[in-house]
Amino acid sequence: MIKEILKVVDELVREKGFSRKVISNALRDAIYTALQKKLGKYGEPVVEIDIEKNIFNVFVPKEVVEDVDSVWHDIHIDDAKKIDPDAELGKIILVPVTIDEIGRQLATTVKMRLNEKLRDAEKDIVYSEFQNKVGEIITGIVLKSDRDGITISIGKTEAVLPRKEMIPGDYYTRGDYIRALLMEIRVVRGWPQLMLSRTHPNFLKKLFESEIPEVFDGVVEVKAVSREPGDRAKVAVYSTNSNIDPVGSCIGIKGVRINAISNELRGEKIDVIHWSPDPVKFVCASISPAEVIVTNIFEDESTIEIVVPDDQLSLAIGKKGQNVKLAAMLTGMKLDVLKESEYNEIRKQRLLEQEQELKDFYEIYNLENLTVLDDDKISRLVQAGISDLEKLVDTSVEQLTAVLGVSDDEAIGIINAAFDYIESKIGEDDK
């Protein structure tokens, strides 16, 4: 049985990647647990196993007796003295037991326990080997493919590439090599399962690192990625070294570098653009190949209006809105694309609205609306930069007395009069 165990050990070391120490510990724990269950309250066994040193020592506690009732619990006095010369009736001694003496029934229990221990050890091996590889590209060999996805052999374990994480057009058969991003280690039915993706933006980012030396060395940095897997992608790159052209480095001579990445992604078209810390410049680059004439950032600072020539509107938006969608994903901004003629009409309307707003503002906040102010006081206020009632109510008493040469009480009266007038006008508008 020892030879059989060693044979199994060699297979486990070769196929599962277990160390002999791990297997020794697992076998020791399995035999100990099985024997302890067999012995019950009669004592605890002693198990010493070291496969590397070929040590297989198993000891069972037995009571020295004259009449043996159980071969597992009792030992005859004559046999006991062969083991321990000081043995006497009623004494408990440790009796060596060979692996073969354990018996078939107990050996089955040991095998079950051993499988449990080794399965736990295999979990630890998977975690220790792949935990630090999450977010990295790993390469494996296809084992099988079905409607749910692909099962891939990676080293001593397996990984799963779900169908939804596959690029449209991906087709693999058993034995094919495949590269994918390790997204996470998910526990499925108590077992760690490596989950892969070929559609995640980081897969494209990692391909840049593996295929482009400047990116791998950190000379060129991939700042942002957006993609519609298998169709089109945008990648923003940047370099702090002014002597390095980040876009040219990524594309390569005659596009050799970017084509290699595109081929890995089933012909996915990749636009490489300059990243800029200036959101306007970045947005203008992201909407390429369209030319940008005007940009306006709205008050929420998350929306940018982009104006392009009339004949380039479809180019900016792209087929089914793909170009502007990828640009928005890349920049993290909401993009509102307008053609030049449409923008000109909108701009005219905005100017009219602004003009009306100024007119309405002037009607309400004109200093001349305040009867407590004469022409001289109004002139002094305007010269001091207090050109409307809104600014007047925000002026301090000390500043107003200095500008107008009035007392504190008069200054307070002027400020209160301005405040009351504005409040009355706003109240009228609300009605």
Beta-strand percent range? 15-25%
Helix/strand/pairing class, anyone? alpha/beta
What's the CATH C level of the largest domain?
Alpha Beta
Strand order of the largest sheet: 5-6-7-9-8
Note poorly predicted spans. none
Shape call: elongated
The helix tally amounts to: 16
The largest sheet is: 5 strands, mixed, barrel
Average the pLDDT over all residues and give the rounded result.
85
DSSP strand count? 15
Radius of gyration: 41 Å
CATH architecture of the largest domain: 2-Layer Sandwich
Tally of structural domains: 4
Helix content: 40-55%
N-end to C-end Cα span: 99 Å
CATH topology of the largest domain: N Utilization Substance Protein A, Chain:P, domain 4
